[in-house]
Amino acid sequence: MKKIFLLAAAVVAFVPSWLAAADKTKGELKVISYNIRYMEANDGTNSWQYRYPASAMMIMDQKPDIFGLQEAKLAQKNYLADVCKGYKGVGVGRDDGKKEGEIMAIFYNTKTVKLLKWGTYWLSETPDKPSMGWDAACYRTATWALLKDKATGKKFYYVNTHLDHVGWEARKNGLALIMNRIADMNKEGYPLVITGDFNMTVDRPEFDEIKARMHNAREEAVTTDHHNTYNGWGKAPATAIIDYVWYSGFSSCIEYETITKPYMDRTYISDHFPIRATLIF
Hints:
The chain is of the alpha+beta class and 281 residues long. The chain has six helices and twelve strands. It has helices spanning 2-14, 48-62, 74-83, 168-185, 208-213, 217-220; strands at 28-35, 66-70, 87-90, 106-109, 113-122, 141-149, 155-162, 192-197, 215-216, 243-248, 252-258, 275-280. Helix 1 (2-14) runs parallel beside helix 2 (48-62).
């Protein structure tokens, strides 16, 4: 494992930190949503100890301006912060509001984006403290950030979340809570991005409000695909599209892609494919 880490660090270190911003065009914002799969999962040869360098390689290859992680444990968040030069991340553990449990982390490219403020709330009846909501199977959170695009000077909000995988009431009410919080938070009407694993397909009625207020990057992009986002290590159906990039306040989305490219010769770098959208201010 130590040899794999050193190899990954060497490969990523070979890519200069400025390269992460090298192909950014003024007015563009490249966003990735990535369910990284928590590190304790016993996935055989797909376990974190074998695949972790591929996640860093994907980030440095794709060069997003911002990206949201779901299921990341503290060690996974810290690993990407250490190895992906030029990126910083924020977020807290969902179990205690500090270090314990999965983190809905937001990372940003320090060359292209400036962090202004951020926070986390829980998808529950008591959102300002660690708590489990409605019929959820576990604690669920949303991390938000107010950021500024350095090329244009424009401010925007970013929310990253992971809705419950069991409770329909938790998914419905959790998403409603996010939309209400956004309405209260974004009085200025700044552009807004929401990413995450929503654990449901877009035809569900729980999406009605977000559909009325925001755009689905997959459906609105000039260039797009319709690939499944959950792969289940090759066992998921082609209809398993449960990860999304939603946006509002941007003029357009020029590209959406489900990132199926292998890294380190691994067909799957997680049990979800990362998804990427390029938004235009």
